[in-house]
Every structure is written in C-alpha cells, then in structure tokens.
Design goal:
By secondary structure, this protein is mainly α. Among the domains are: about 20-130, no CATH class; about 635-715. The protein contains 28 helices and six strands. It has a two-stranded antiparallel ribbon with strand order 1-2.
Length: about 725
C-alpha cells in the first residue's frame, strides 16, 4: 500500500508539473511573446543540443540560439526562421512533419513539442521572431517599484503580478503561525512557550519586526545560515574517497558562523573564502576562511596518482565556484564546448588556470600540503588545511576530451568571453577573480545569492534552478523583483541580514499557507505566490527541534564535531577505518550542525532525513516525506530521549490536569493550542495510555509526546 501511495504521489506530481508548465506557457498566448520567457526555454530543451552553441555537434549547420543562425541559410539552403512567414520557416515545417526522417525534434532524441509549445512558436514567428540576449547574462537594472500602498517593495511586485493575473494575495497568517514560521526559518528552532506568549501579548504594530530583529541577533541565526553555506562549501570532517580518513577543518565551520553573526558583507565574505590567503598581511581568520576550497574531497597517499587527483581538485574548485557565485553549469565544458551556454572549452580552461596554481596536499606523501597552525579554545595546537598560491605558476593547457594526458592549446588565466572583459581587464589570479565577482558589475552574482536567500524562506527561489542561471535554467517567476532585490543587495553594501530581513518582513512572506481554490487551475506550482508554501524541515532541524521541545538542546560555542549515538559497527560494516565513540555530557545534545560529517558513512539519521553527504556542492537539497523516515523519528535514541524529556516537561511545568498538560504539549510542538476536536481525541488517547501505564505517568505521556513530535505539522514549517 505504501508503494502504491508513493507511486500515486509521483504520478500526481508529474501531472501537476506538466499542468504548471502548460499554464505558464499559455499565460503568454494572445499577448506579446517574449523570447527569454516564452521561447528560449522551449528551444533550449528541445533544440539546442543539436542546434546550439557547440559547433562540433551542430547538425546541418543550423544554429537556433542566435538570431543570425536562425535567420541564415542552413547547409541545405533552407532558412529555419523567416520572421512573419510560417510557411517559409523550415522550423515550422519540420515540427509538423509526419515523415520520421523529417520531423523535429527527431524521435531518437525522445523530445516532443506539446501543442501549447507549438502555438507559442507560431505566435512568436508571426510577431517577428525577435531574439533577446539571455536575461541572466545582462546586468540587472533596478526597475521602478509598482504603484500601490505597500510598505515593502517586495509586496508591490508580487501584488502587481497577481493583479495582472486577476488574483489577490492571501490574507496574513495567524500570529501563532507567524512566530513559528519565522523562528524556524531564522534559527532552525521552534519558539519557546515564553517567546510565544510574549509575542501574543505584544499588540504593537512593530511586534513582528521586533521578533525578527531579536532572532537575527542570535547565534542560532548564524548557525542556521551557516548550515546552508556548508552545503555549498561541501564541508565535512573527512577527506572522502575510499578510505575517507578524517581531516581537521572544523575551524572553517566556526569561521562561517562567526562571519555570519557579525554580518560580514558578502563581498568580503567572498574574497576571504576564495583568496583570503592572498590578501596583503592576511590574518589567521582570513587564511582559515580560504579553507572553503580545501573542503573538497582530498586524496592523500601512495595509492592515489598525485597529478590525476590534484587536477580533480582543481575541477571541483572551478565547478563549485561557478555554482555558488555564478549559478552556471561550467562542468559541462570540461570535455567539450558547452551544449547550451556560450562557454567554449577553451574558456573553461582559462578559468581552470585561476585555480591551477594552488599547492596540493597530495604533492609528496610526507609533505602534507599547505596548512596553518592555530590554537583552539582549549589551548591545543591544531593544523588545518588552507589555500596557498605557488611561487612558480603552473602552465595550463586545454584537456582534449577532458583527458589531462592529452593536452591541447596553452591558455592564460581569465573568465569566459561571454562576460565581455578585454584582455587587460581579465583577472590573472584568484584574488583578482574574487574581486571581479563582487565588484557590483557582474550580471550573475547578486541575482544568484538573492535567489538562494529567497529559496531559504519560500522553499524555492524566484528562479527554481538555483544552480543553473544559464540557457537551460528556469525563467524567474518575478524577474523585476529579482533584479530589484539584486540591485538593492549590492547598493546596501552586500548586507546579508538586511536582505534577509526585507524578505521575512514582507506581507508576501506573512501570507497564510491555506491554498486558494483557484490555485490548482491557474498556478499549480504557486509561482505567483498566491499563498505561502509549507516547507518540510531539513534533517538537522527535525532533530534539533526534537531536542528543543524536550528541553535537552545545549549550546555549542565552537570546537570539534560530536558523536551522537549511531548503530554499532556502522563504520566497520562499511569497511571504513576508525571507530565511532559516542559523545557524553552536554555535547551529546549539541545541534546537528556539529555532528561529525563522514562523507562515505553519513550519520544514518541525517542520511535518512535527506541531508547531503557533501561530496559535491549542493545548491538545493532534495526533500522527501517517506515512511522510512519515521524509523528515525520513532526509534533513534535521541528522539526517544527527547519524547521522554518532553513528557517530563509537561508533567512538571503544566498544572496537574490533562487539558492543561495537553495545551502545553501542543504549544511545545506546534506553537498553538489544540482545537476542540483535537482536544477531545487526544484526551481520549491520554486516558487510554494512562490505563495502559497506571503506575508510570511519564511513560503514558511519552506516548503522547511521540505522537505529537511525529505529526506532519510538527515536521513542516508552516
């Protein structure tokens, strides 16, 4: 039955996605077609693989990613697109062909054009088949804020779009939902009963904003933001690969937390991590920050070919940097010209050259590579891996078909020509490159970062492909808002807290999550943000919330990672070296951010709840709600202990009657009181459990706590 339900959910998801795509496309029908919004996604998905940027695989000499290619003659003398002339456009003829040898896309591509897509192509050709530069490759310009009585410009953009679609925003959520939502989003923890009561008692107009400011000033806020950044940085406590041995790099994790807590501007946050070691008179902190690119899997030892694994590290640094700061799939150009984006292979290796001059930890088994020694809080000496530039630059060559053993032309450091820099403007080392990224003129960086902040609040970014702002990436749901936020972010001095505050104080963020009836028909994927999406909590927050509810959570200020219980012989059964020694004392109940992160054997609780192993950069986690996850939340020793602790809290802190105890239990788990039907059913359940454990009231209430802690409402951000 469970399998049938999951298959049904998958099928329903597919139907909704298809319906959303058609609705998104047909919403433009009958109005002016815009190439970037309406046409490029179709051509990129169905045509560019054979008729795009990569000249080596281009068929019939036809290029559809540029106007010059589309309007020009093909090898056979035909013209793919004649603006305003359907019958004279080979593209139109071919997509309606019935001959298997003539139809486009060809059947062997397993691509087909939906009727709605053909309709849009017809209208586009009829309207003149106008091309545009890809929206993400043009510098953002601050658009005017739409008119209306909106205190927050975000709401003006969202309301303006909804008005054009004949819709209105949803009303504001109730106050218990608001404080639970914003507290979970900003700190990863639920509000305490005392915080809830204080907010409900504050009737001033600034009550909500005061809560936001209080939360953003906490270390909890910095830790929650650091968690997302560590996914991008592929932070782990082990080196990866088959032996997956430990390496001490946790000071980098602590640096990210500290930098976030002091609200370091994002431009300096970037420079410190990409090139902190190259700064004049670099501080110890800046050199620790440069460990961003030493988080990648590291190969050491005589069994690893040194040069091969050094180059794997360079590739990882390049591809990760492109994902984190540019939102580009640069890795597609490692072996050949990019199939979709204007990134030739030679440009890939020009950027490769920027990261090719770094000392490698595998160079010489006894050498150990670049490290610095720091003193920990407990006065111990610790050597951590950092970045270090070689005095003698390496030469860089194109790797033909991605094989470093077959070098091609020699290249100089630089960034892809698509960014329009002259040779004298090109960055020649990591420091110049990092400064170029955040000089305010880069068309991608601010958009990509703003999009991830939006994603952290709404579950999806304004661009739902956070790692791909290229030609295959999704059109932004609200392009003017994205550009306005990007410009605002840069002009604020790259102020991350200010950006985050702007988002969570908007009326859009404060909407109810109740789904309007018209949403399924008009906007099934809620791109217009007619209501607030509910978001499944990440793995760490599910565990941390349980600890907080039970009153067990202990603060960690810094230090080595900790070892909560996991199955015996878990590492040994996977033939991995080392032994897991369960932590004791307060560290047993530290936040999940501090759990020892082993790439080849992630803690099973984190793995089952969809945390990434961090072998590679992760721009957006996959989230699921599967029956197997209940094996964690019902049986993991930490969750069992948390349920017992919650039961004890209820029995100790609430008046000695079942309704009062139930109300406290609901406030701890859900930040609200039970409604009448819930109260009736739970009181009956409490009576049953009390009869089952007549001499053990904590055991009876542990059952109630377990049920509440496993509710979908508890495990979901409202």
């Amino acid at each position: 039955m469970a399998r049938m339900r999951m298959q049904g959910c998958a099928a329903a998801t597919t139907r909704i996605a298809l319906a959303g795509t058609v609705a998104w496309l047909t919403s433009a029908t009958g109005s002016e077609i815009e190439f970037n919004r309406d046409i490029r996604p179709i051509l990129a998905d169905k045509c560019f693989a054979c008729h795009g940027f990569d000249a080596k695989t281009r068929k019939a000499g036809l290029r559809l990613d540029t106007a010059e290619g589309a309007y020009g003659q093909t090898e056979s003398g035909t013209v793919a697109i004649r603006p305003g002339d359907l019958k004279g456009s080979e593209l139109w003829v071919r997509i309606h062909a019935t001959d298997p040898d003539e139809i486009m896309p060809p059947r062997k591509s397993h691509k087909t054009l939906a009727p709605a897509e053909k309709d849009i192509l017809r209208e586009w050709i009829g309207q003149g088949a106008h091309y545009q530069k890809h929206w993400a490759f043009a510098a953002p310009r601050r658009p005017p804020v739409p008119p209306g009585a909106h205190a927050n410009p975000i709401d003006a953009f969202i309301a303006g779009r909804l008005k054009r679609e004949g819709q209105v925003p949803s009303p504001e959520a109730d106050r218990t939902t608001l404080i639970r939502r914003v507290t979970l989003d900003l700190t990863g923890l639920p509000p305490s009963p005392a915080e809830l009561e204080a907010f409900l008692a504050d009737s001033s107009a600034q009550a909500y904003e005061r809560v936001v400011d209080r939360l953003m000033a906490t270390r909890d806020y910095a830790e929650r933001r650091a968690q997302d950044w560590l996914d991008l940085a592929r932070y782990a406590d082990t080196r990866g690969y088959a032996d997956d041995k430990p390496h001490d790099i946790w000071p980098f994790r602590d640096w990210v937390i500290a930098a976030t807590q002091r609200n370091q501007p994002f431009d300096q946050f970037t420079i410190d991590q990409l090139a902190g070691d190259m700064l004049p008179d670099a501080s110890t902190e800046q050199r620790v920050a440069s460990a961003f690119h030493r988080n990648a899997p590291q190969a050491k030892g005589q069994t690893y070919p040194t040069e091969e694994y050094r180059l794997k590290g360079v590739v990882d640094r390049l591809n990760t940097t492109a994902t984190v700061w540019l939102g580009l799939t640069m890795g597609c150009a490692e072996c050949h010209d990019h199939k979709f984006d204007p990134i030739p292979q030679v440009d890939y290796y020009r950027m490769f050259a920027l990261f090719n001059n770094i000392e490698h930890s595998g160079e010489g088994f006894t050498q150990g590579g670049p490290h610095i020694e720091i003193e920990t809080a407990d006065k111990q000496k610790l050597s951590i891996p950092v970045m270090k530039e070689r005095l003698q630059p390496r030469e860089t060559f194109v790797h033909l078909r991605g094989n470093f053993l077959t070098p091609g032309d020699k290249v100089t450091p630089g960034v892809p020509a698509m960014f329009g820099l002259t040779e004298t403007q090109q960055p020649r080392n990591r420091l110049e490159f990092a400064r170029w990224l955040v000089n305010g003129n880069n068309p991608l960086v601010a958009r990509v970062v703003v999009n991830r902040f939006w994603q952290s609040c709404f579950g999806y970014g304004l661009v739902r492909t956070p790692a791909d702002f290229g030609l295959r990436g999704e059109w932004p749901a609200h392009p003017e808002l994205l550009d306005w936020l990007a410009c605002e972010f840069v002009e604020s001095g790259w102020d991350m807290k200010r950006l985050h505050r702007q988002i969570v104080t908007s009326a859009t963020y404060r909407q109810t999550a109740r789904i309007p009836p018209q949403l399924a028909a008009r906007d099934p994927q809620n791109r217009w943000l007619m209501c607030m999406p509910r978001v499944r909590l990440p793995a760490e927050q599910i565990r941390d919330q349980a600890l907080a509810i039970g009153g067990l959570l202990k603060p960690a200020t810094s230090g080595r990672s900790v070892f909560p219980p996991q199955p015996d012989q878990y590492w040994e059964d996977r033939d991995l070296p080392g032994k897991w020694t369960t932590s004791t004392g307060h560290s047993l109940h530290f936040k999940s951010l501090y759990i020892y992160w082993r790439r080849m054997a992630l803690h099973p609780t984190m793995e089952l709840l969809d945390a990434p192993a961090r072998a590679v950069c992760t721009a957006r986690r996959n989230t699921a709600n599967l029956p197997t996850q209940a094996l964690v939340t019902l049986n993991d020793p930490i969750f069992v202990e948390a349920a017992r602790a919650m039961a004890q809290r209820v029995l100790t802190e609430a008046p000695a009657d079942n309704p009062a105890r139930l109300e406290l239990a609901f406030r701890l788990c859900l930040s609200r009181k039970p409604d009448a039907p819930e109260q009736s059913r739970f009181l009956t359940f409490i009576e049953q459990q009390t009869r089952r454990y007549p001499d053990d009231l904590p055991a009876a209430w542990s059952s109630i706590a377990t049920v509440l802690m496993n509710l979908d409402e508890t495990l979901t951000r409202p």
